[in-house]
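Methods: holo model generation. Sequences were used as deposited, without trimming of termini or removal of tags, and paired with ligand SMILES retrieved from the corresponding compound records. Each pair was processed once, and we did not select among multiple samples. The sequence and S-adenosylmethionine SMILES for this entry were:
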Amino acid sequence: MWKILLLVVIFSLTTGVVEAYLSDLGDQKSEDADIDARVRKFLQSPTRSWYGMSVPDVDGQALHDIVIQHGYKNALEIGTSVGRSAIWIAWALSKPGGRLITIEIDPGAYREALANFRATGLDKYIDARLGDAHKIVPELQGPFDFVFCDADKDWYINYLDAVLPKLAVGGCFAAHNVSEGFLGGFGRRGRFGFGRGGDSFLEHARSIPYLETTVLDLRGSAGLSVSYKRAAK
Ligand SMILES: C[S@@+](CC[C@H](N)C(=O)[O-])C[C@H]1O[C@@H](n2cnc3c(N)ncnc32)[C@H](O)[C@@H]1O
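and the model returned the structure below.
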């Protein structure tokens, strides 16, 4: 008799666990669908803000796809502006439950980004920080498996050097507004920093033996390089 009772108890417990699991799965699916719809709506409307230029869709899509393809979960963005690229990245991260830290120095852009993150439902996947990335990036603990660099161009080399020890093997450091014909073109000119010749981010990245750096060949791209870390350093 007690054996039958034991079987009944085990059966009920197992059914309960399976039901709870299926219900969680259903909740996750409907949350994903909700986020997908809100993100698509956001991305369909062009970013009208005057704050720093947002990535074109072709670059946003590439960032999203890189994160999905590699299963990255711990991302960092330097230069949030109003959050368009962060939304592409966090959209991809939301599927495996990853997280993005994004840094912006301008309070107005930061506030607008926060509103955009809430509007898309991605705010729970994004840790948005207001401040100077020159100071914040070296203090971050990591590890990161994906980094998108899109702030002051004349500081890219410093950002790469600061992040590399915290980048996981197999991780990717993507940099925006980089192109083959513009090797020395980053500069110290105002906050967005285009202009000065001399320092070459691409040359620097390619001089690091355990990094594999290419510029993506994408029609309509504003120049997107990817550097994959191939060994522990
Ligand atoms: C090109 S915009 C970023 C666009 C954004 N990644 C997107 O595609 O939606 C560059 C941003 O970097 C920010 N920025 C520049 N220098 C910075 C610094 N030292 N620390 C943090 N943010 C900085 C600017 O205020 C600006 O909003």
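The pocket of S-adenosylmethionine is lined by residues 51-55, 79, 81, 84-85, 103-106, 109, 132-134, 150-152, 191-192 (CB under 6 Å).
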